[in-house]
User: Which sequence fits this backbone?
């Protein structure tokens, strides 16, 4: 420690001397313990802050480096930190142009953190989950780009939280119930968002500062909020003190009656119109994609373009095929939506997440159209912006989205057809004697390609909590050279959250099953399951055909493989391995298990993963010994 403390016992021969000696030693022990604890906390804060720095972008925190500690007692050495007794109690990084989202799993490691302020940055995505930061007193995130609804339980457990500033974002929905129940809340700034519904009831005098202006709130202002100025409620559909009096009940009742009569009349007219149309169009195909694309696309497989043209002409039906596809690059082959609907079609699959069709265009190009009905989490503008962002991704291991079409009720995503179909088919569905199963070099090549693709998603989609979100063997396509192509990536933000929770792979992870949370390391867990599937050939339960309410996690599958593993468990259909390769195969197997670590904090991160995967070779090197590798594996996992 550099310095030593000595406590001299009192120079006394009385019978109390031993007591004073013991007391002195106790004081020394407390001092040493305190100093040691401070050093450990400082070191822990150092590692956590460096990890947090890596999770955000847009501004180079040059002072956050290894040349000095974050804090010296109450003095901060790093920009934007607030320190006390050598630990970080606050982070204040305002107006720095920070990008991405706030990784609260990382910040949760700062044991003394009570205040965060990231006002006036470019942070985006869904509202972070602060539930694990149960010591927070202040959350200040105004003037950023957070969007979507705040979950009802987002503020559960934050019993010390006093100040919340979320002004000038793009947050929607109602004020969450967990916020209303905060026992210490004093300041609440929600202006300039898109919140809706009625204002909640707060006890009179509970809030000392509040602002609800420029949202979509409606109804009467509750008594507990009536002491605030009228300007704090402007830009809404509110009434009552301090605004104008609410409409009298009699007038409101009359208005309701008028609205009901108008709606009833309109409904009757609409029903009558539908009856007439149904009589006129009996036995006709639907008039193009707007009404029932699955029927049209399936019918396209049975009718040639010429035959469909004759059918339409005979029935006098002129389909509305003027709707446009939005192409995501200028250099792709262009075609119209009507070309897709008129072309020969073959259904590739239909599941809970969407239906896929193989479309043979007249010019010889073959496309895949995926039809999604559960993508209403964003409005049209946000949805289009997000898909265009995905469309800019270019990587050899990512299947690009060529074009898309937006409708309120359903969306189409268009990509090029891949001949070699999916990894899942080659692992589990390829029973032909004429086809060879995937050998060890090919499986290693596939894993390395998947990791490279995933790393690219992490790099180019830093604001997404889970850059892929639905990684599984059926969403890994293989081209003619058996290079993997990731599909269905980046769709968590646009997918209806209830549907995502029921059917997407990210929500099968241990952290969601136990804590109702996902993180950037959730994709790593999905990758681990995929590696174990590739190495053993065993189909993980509940990853392809899923059903609502059947959320059996994959823990049993992972535990079984790790506990029962022997060389015999490697897929017997995997040719091309022997004594010269078993050591490398064991390395990859261990990497898969490290990805499946239940504890998110202990789970391997993407940077470590890339390095470890690249280190796996097709053949054992002269320094590799399978038996020692296997023994090391057994000792590692038998002790857990």
Assistant:
């Amino acid at each position: 420690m550099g310095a030593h403390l000595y406590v001299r016992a009192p120079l006394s021969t009385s019978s109390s001397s031993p007591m004073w000696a013991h007391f002195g030693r106790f004081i020394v022990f407390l001092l040493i313990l305190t100093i040691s604890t401070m050093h450990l906390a400082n070191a822990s804060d150092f590692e956590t802050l460096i990890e947090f720095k890596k999770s955000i972008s847009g501004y180079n925190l040059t002072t956050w480096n290894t040349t000095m500690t974050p804090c010296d007692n109450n003095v901060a050495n790093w920009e934007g930190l607030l320190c006390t007794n050598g630990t970080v109690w606050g982070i204040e990084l305002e107006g720095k142009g920070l990008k991405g989202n706030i990784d609260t799993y990382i910040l949760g490691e700062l044991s003394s953190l009570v205040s965060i302020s990231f006002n006036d940055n470019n942070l985006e995505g869904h509202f972070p989950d602060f539930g694990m930061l149960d010591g927070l007193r202040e959350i200040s995130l105004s003037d950023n780009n957070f969007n979507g609804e705040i979950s009802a339980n987002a503020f559960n457990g934050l019993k010390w939280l006093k100040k919340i500033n979320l002004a000038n974002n793009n947050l929607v929905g109602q004020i969450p119930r967990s916020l209303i129940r905060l026992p210490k809340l004093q300041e609440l700034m929600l202006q300039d968002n898109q919140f809706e519904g009625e204002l909640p009831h707060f006890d009179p005098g509970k809030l000392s500062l509040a602002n609800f202006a420029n949202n979509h709130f409606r109804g009467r202002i509750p008594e507990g909020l009536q002491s605030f100025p009228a300007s704090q409620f402007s830009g809404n559909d509110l009434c009552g003190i301090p605004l104008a009096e609410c409409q009298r009940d009699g007038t409101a009742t009359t208005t309701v009656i008028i609205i009901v009569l108008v709606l009833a009349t309109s409904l009757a007219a609409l029903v009558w119109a539908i009856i007439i149309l149904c009589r006129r169009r009996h036995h006709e195909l639907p008039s193009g994609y707007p009404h029932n694309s699955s029927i049209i696309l399936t019918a396209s497989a049975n009718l040639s373009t010429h035959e469909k043209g004759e059918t339409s002409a005979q029935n006098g039906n002129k389909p509305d095929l003027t709707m446009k596809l939005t192409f995501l690059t200028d250099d792709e082959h262009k075609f119209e939506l009507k070309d897709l609907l008129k072309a020969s079609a073959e259904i590739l699959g239909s599941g809970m997440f969407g239906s896929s069709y193989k479309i043979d265009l007249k010019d010889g190009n073959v496309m895949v159209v995926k039809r999604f009905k559960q993508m209403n989490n964003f409005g049209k503008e946000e949805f289009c912006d997000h898909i265009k962002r995905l469309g800019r991704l270019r990587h050899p291991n990512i299947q690009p989205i060529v074009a898309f079409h937006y409708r309120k009720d359903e969306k189409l995503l268009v990509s090029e057809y891949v001949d070699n179909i999916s990894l899942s088919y080659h692992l589990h569905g390829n029973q032909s004697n004429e086809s060879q199963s995937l050998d060890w070099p090919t499986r290693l090549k596939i894993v390395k390609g998947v990791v490279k693709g995933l790393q690219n998603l992490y790099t180019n989609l830093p604001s997404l909590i889970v850059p892929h979100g639905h990684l599984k063997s059926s969403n890994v396509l293989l081209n003619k050279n058996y290079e993997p192509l990731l599909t269905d990536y980046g769709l968590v933000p646009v997918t209806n959250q209830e549907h995502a929770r029921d059917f997407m792979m990210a929500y099968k992870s241990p952290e969601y099953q136990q804590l109702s949370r996902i993180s950037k390391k959730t994709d790593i867990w999905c990758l681990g399951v995929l590696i174990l599937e590739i190495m053993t050939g065993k189909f993980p339960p509940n990853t392809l055909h899923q059903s609502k309410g059947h959320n059996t996690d994959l823990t049993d599958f992972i535990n079984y493989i790790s506990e029962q593993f022997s060389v015999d468990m490697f897929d017997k259909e995997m040719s091309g391995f022997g004594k010269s390769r078993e050591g490398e195969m064991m390395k990859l197997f261990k990497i898969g298990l490290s990805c499946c670590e239940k504890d998110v904090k202990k789970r391997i991160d993407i940077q470590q993963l890339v390095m470890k995967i690249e280190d796996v070779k097709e053949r054992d090197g002269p320094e590799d010994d399978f038996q020692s590798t296997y023994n090391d594996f057994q000792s590692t996992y038998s002790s857990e």
